[in-house]
Amino acid sequence: MSAATGGPAAGTPAAETLGARDRRPDPVQLRCAVLANEPAGAYRRLVLDAGEAARRALPGQFAALAVGEPPTAMLLRRAVSIHATTPGDRRFDGADTLEIVVAPHGPGTEWVTRRRAGDVLDVVAPLGRPFPAPEVGAPTVLVGGGYGSAPLVWLARDLRDAGHRVDVVLGAASRDKLFGLEEAAAVVGPDLVHVTTDDGSAGLRGRVTDALASLARDGVVVYACGPMAMLRAVHEVATAAGGTSWLAVEESMACGIGVCMTCVLPVRGEDGVTRMTRSCVEGPTFDGDRVRWDAISIGPGGATSAVPADCLGAPVASGKGH
Amino acid sequence: MTTTATGTSGPAGTTGTAVGFDPRTAIGALELRNPVLTASGCAAAGRELGRLYDVAALGAVVTKSILRDARSGRPTPRMAETPSGMLNSIGLQGPGIDAFLAHDLPWLRDHGATAVVSIAGTDAAEFAELAGRLVDEPGVGAVEVNISCPNVANRGLVFACDAGSSAEVVSGVVDVVGGRVPVLAKLSPDVTDIVAIARACLDHGADGLAMVNTTLGMVVDTDTMRPVLAGVTGGLSGPAIRPIAVRCVWQVHAAMRRGDLRTAPGVGIGGILTGLDALQFVLAGASAVQVGTSTFHDPSAPLRVGTELAQALADRGFASVADAVGPAHTVLAREGAR
Ligand SMILES: Cc1cc2nc3c(=O)[nH]c(=O)nc-3n(C[C@H](O)[C@H](O)[C@H](O)COP(=O)(O)OP(=O)(O)OC[C@H]3O[C@@H](n4cnc5c(N)ncnc54)[C@H](O)[C@@H]3O)c2cc1C
Ligand SMILES: Cc1cc2nc3c(=O)[nH]c(=O)nc-3n(C[C@H](O)[C@H](O)[C@H](O)COP(=O)(O)O)c2cc1C
Ligand code: FES
C-alpha cells in the first residue's frame, strides 16, 4: 500500500497537505458567513468564511452542515466534500475561505443552495481522513463522478506540486452535471483532463471507467469520488491494471463525527479483520482493496451493506428454537 | 479574516454558569458537576466529542451500551431522518467489554470525565457479569442498565417491556454491584404502564431511573416500496419524542409523590435540544437529563444545554437543581384540591 511510505519531499507545499494517512486535524464547530453562492452547472458553489476550519482542512475531508432555519425539523447535518480552502483569500478581504459544491438533492441540500451572501451556516469541519499520498513519482489518475470531482481539483494541485503525473477523468450523466472542468484544466493542463458523459453531451459518450481503462497502468494510484457503483468499477479497473485505488464513499451519516455508528460499511482493517467501519472517521477515503465489495449491494436507491459472516462480532447463525 | 459571524467556535456552552446558581446535582451517590449528561449511543465513549471540547465539563459521559463480546451491529441503512427526529437501527455495535476496559475507560479517566457506563446483554447473567467487570474499575461513576434490548430467553421480548425480566436483570446487577456505585435502570416508553416497570426496577434495588430509551418506529420508502431501514424497524429519537418522554418522567414522579413508588432520582431523556427542553424534564421530576440525538445536530449541545438550563433555573429563582425538581406536580395538586 502506498500511504505511509514515500510522499513528497518535506518542505514542499504539497508535503504540508499530503502524506500522513493518520494526520487528521481536530474539527471545529463554527458559524460561517456565506461570502458567495454562484451557479456551477447543475450545482451551486458556496464560499464560506470558515476561519480555523479552512486553515486545518486537507483534501478528501468533508464538512457537516446544519440545515434549515432554527429550530429546524431536519435534525441531521448534511455532509459535503470540501472543494477548496484559501487561507487569506484575496477575493474576500483576506478571509480564510472554504468552498463547497452542493447538488440540490432533497430538502436539506436545497436549503443550502438557497443561502445568500451574508447568511450564516453552522459548520463542523474538517472531518474524516484525507486522501493519502501516493508513492514518490507514481502516476495518478483522479476520477470524479458528478459533484464527486469537487474534492479532486484541490488534490490534483497538491499532487502536481509534488511532482506526480496527474490525469483527471470527469464524468456525469450530462454536460450540466460535470463539475470542475476549467479548474482541472488550469491545474493539470487541458490535455490531461478527460471527459465522459452518459448521453454524449460533452466529451466521450460512455463511463469514466472507459477513459480510466486507457490511462491506468502498473503502479497507478487512482483517487475517486462519486456514486458507489462508479467507485466499485474504478476499483476494478485500477486493480486489473496493477494499481491501487483510494475511494471517497458517500454513506448516510447522522452525526459525521464518529459517535452514532450509522455510516458504516464493511472494511478489512490492517490486521485483516473485517469490521463495520465508520466512514465519517475511518473514511470517507478508503483503500478500494479493503472494502468488502462482496457484502455491498448497489441498487437504484444507493448502496447498502450486509454484515459479512467473517466480520468482527457478526451474529452467529444459530438453529436454536424460539 | 473578516470579523463577521465566524470565530464563535465549538464549545458554545463552556462558559460559567448563572450567578448564584449551584449547578451540582446527584443521582444517588453519584455527584455530578452539572445535570446534563450525554445519552448512551450518542457520544460513543467520549473520545470523538473530546476532539471538539473538554468532556470533563459535562455532567457525565454515558457510554454506548457495552456488551460482553464484540458486535458488528446490523446491516445498512441504519438510519432515517424523520420530522424533528430520526430512526436508528444500529444493533448495539461495539467492541465488547475487554476492549472497552483497555481503551475507552482509561481515556475517560485520563480526561477527567465522569463516566456512566451503559451495559446491555442478551440474558440477565450477561448484565451481571458486565457489572462485575466494571464495578471496581476506577473511573466508573455509575452503571446504567440498558434493558431496552431483546431477552433471548423470552422469545426476544425486550426486557424493559416486562416487569419480571426487568426485575431479574436489575436484581442481578444490584447484587454484584453491592452498593459500590449507583445503578440506573433505563426504561422504554413502549410499555402500557411505565410505573409498573419502574416499580420492578426500584423494588429490586435500582438507585435511579433513566427515562426514556427510543420508541419503536418505521419508515417506508415510497420509491422502492420497502422499509428504509435494513432492520425494518428502528428506534425513534429526537424532539419528536420529547412529549412522550416528559410524560413518562411525570407519571413515574407522580407515583413517587403519591407514595405508590419508592422515591428515587430520575434522569430525563428524549429530544432535549435546549435548556428549556431540559427544564421541562426537571419540572416534571428529573434530577438530571441526558442529551442524545441533538448531539448529532449540534455536537456542543450537551454542554450548551447545561449552561442554558442553569440560566433558566436561575431566572426562575431556583438556587439549585434539587429545588426545581417537580413543581409541575405541585401546581396540579393545588388545582386538583380546588
Ligand atoms: C462524505 C460525503 C461527502 C459528500 N459530498 C457532497 C458534496 O460535495 N456535494 C453534495 O451536493 N452532496 C454531497 N454529499 C451528499 C449529501 O450529503 C446528500 O445529498 C445530502 O445529505 C442529502 O440531504 P437532503 O436533505 O438534500 O436529502 P434527503 O434525501 O431529504 O436527506 C434525508 C437524509 O438522508 C441523508 N442522505 C440522503 N442522501 C444522502 C447521500 N447521498 N449521502 C449521505 N447522506 C444522504 C441526509 O443526510 C439526510 O439525513 C456527500 C455525502 C457524504 C457522506
Ligand atoms: C444512534 C443512537 C444509538 C443509541 N444507542 C443506545 C444504546 O446503545 N444504549 C441505550 O441505552 N440507548 C441508546 N440510544 C437511545 C438514547 O440514549 C436515548 O435514550 C434516546 O435516543 C432518546 O433521547 P434523544 O431524543 O435525546 O436522542 C441510542 C440512540 C440513538 C439515536
Ligand atoms: S456519521 Fe455518526 S458515526 Fe459516522
Structure in words:
The complex is a heterodimer of chains A (322) and B (338). Chain A has helices at 13-17, 51-56, 107-113, 152-161, 181-188, 208-215, 228-240, and strands at residues 28-40, 43-49, 62-65, 78-81, 84-89, 95-102, 120-127, 140-145, 166-172, 193-197, 204-205, 221-225, 244-248, 264-268, 274-278, 285-287, 296-299, 302-305. Chain A has 2 domains: 25-127, Translation factors (Elongation Factor Tu (Ef-tu), domain 3, Beta Barrel); 140-305, 3-Layer(aba) Sandwich (Rossmann fold). In chain A, a hairpin with a 5-residue loop joins strand 14 (264-268) and strand 15 (274-278). Residues 1-16 of chain A have low confidence and may be disordered. Chain A is an alpha/beta fold. In chain A, 18% of the residues lie in helices and 31% in strands. Chain B is α/β, with parallel strands linked by helices and 338 residues long. Chain B is built from 10 helices and 18 strands. Chain B has helices at residues 97-110, 124-134, 163-177, 194-203, 242-258, 275-284, 294-297, 301-315, 321-324, 327-337; strands at residues 25-27, 30-32, 36-38, 61-62, 79-82, 85-88, 115-119, 140-146, 150-151, 157-158, 183-187, 208-211, 215-217, 220-221, 226-227, 234-237, 266-269, 288-291. In chain B, strands 3-18-17-12-11-8-7-4 form an 8-stranded parallel β-sheet. Chain B has a 4-stranded antiparallel β-sheet with strand order 5-6-16-13, with no helix packed on it. In chain B, strand 11, helix 4 and strand 12 (208-211) form a beta-alpha-beta unit. In chain B, helix 2 (124-134) packs parallel to helix 3, helix 5 runs parallel beside helix 6 and helix 6 crosses helix 8 (301-315). The longest helix of chain B is centred in the last third of the chain and has 17 residues, at 242-258. The chains are: A alpha/beta (322), B alpha/beta (338). Chains A and B meet through strand 1 and strand 7 of A and strand 6 and helix 7 of B. Bound molecules: flavin-adenine dinucleotide, flavin mononucleotide and FE2/S2 (inorganic) cluster. The site of FE2/S2 (inorganic) cluster (FES) has 12 residues of chain A, from loops.
